[in-house]
Specification:
By secondary structure, the protein is mainly alpha-helical. Helix content is 58%, strand content 10%. The chain has 6 helices and 3 strands; from the N terminus they run H-H-E-H-H-E-E-H-H. It has helices at residues 15-38, 46-57, 63-70, 74-86, 108-129, 134-151; strands at 61-62, 90-95, 98-106. A 3-stranded antiparallel beta sheet has the order 1-3-2. Strand 2 and strand 3 form a beta hairpin.
C-alpha cells in the first residue's frame, strides 16, 4: 500500500477521493457485515441480528423505527421482536413521555451476544490487517479518524444509517 502523502495533491478537488470512498467502503462493509453475521449465535437469524445491531446503536427505538430500517412490515417485525423478547435479548418498555409508545432496548444478554460477535469480528479484521506494515496501519487509522470526523452526525443532523455495523 502506498502511504498517504499529505504534501501531494493526488486527490485533486476531492473527486478522486470520493470515487475511492464509493469503491472501497462498500467492499469493507460487506466484509464487516459477513464477519459480524458469522459471529452471531447460530440460532439467531440475520434479520434478528440486524435488529439487535440497530437497537445497539439506537436504544429506545420504536417498532416503526426498526421496521423502516429493515424494510419489514410492522406485523412481521412484531413477531420477530416477540422471539427476541422470549429469548431475553430485547425488552419492550413504555416510553416515559408517552405510555402508549413502546420502545425497544437490548437486554444485558442481548448486548452480550452482540458484543461477542463484535469482538470476534474485531479479531478477524485485525488478522486481515496484519498484511499491512505498522506504518501503513497507522496511516489507515489516521485516515479513518479523519473520515469519522467528517461524517459523524452532528446535533440536529443525526442519520439512522450512520455507524452501520451489521
Amino acid at each position: 500500500m502506498k502511504l498517504l502523502d499529505t504534501a501531494s495533491n493526488d486527490a485533486g478537488d476531492g473527486d478522486e477521493c470520493a470515487a475511492e470512498l464509493l469503491t472501497t467502503v462498500p467492499l469493507v462493509m460487506r466484509i464487516i457485515r459477513g464477519e459480524m453475521r458469522s459471529g452471531r449465535p447460530a440460532d439467531l437469524s440475520v434479520p434478528q441480528f440486524r435488529t439487535m445491531a440497530f437497537l445497539r446503536r439506537h436504544e429506545g427505538a420504536s417498532l416503526s423505527d426498526v421496521a423502516g430500517h429493515l424494510g419489514l412490515t410492522l406485523p412481521t417485525l412484531s413477531k420477530m421482536i416477540d422471539g427476541l423478547v422470549k429469548r431475553e435479548f430485547v425488552m419492550r418498555e413504555s416510553a416515559p413521555d408517552d405510555r402508549r409508545r413502546v420502545t425497544l432496548v437490548l437486554t444485558r444478554q442481548g448486548q452480550a451476544a452482540f458484543d461477542a460477535a463484535r469482538r470476534e469480528t474485531r479479531v478477524r479484521l485485525a488478522e486481515k490487517l496484519k498484511a499491512f506494515s505498522p506504518s501503513e496501519r497507522k496511516e489507515i487509522v489516521r485516515a479513518l479518524k479523519l473520515l469519522r470526523e467528517a461524517f459523524a452526525p452532528t446535533p440536529g443532523n443525526v442519520s439512522p444509517t450512520v455507524g452501520h455495523e451489521e
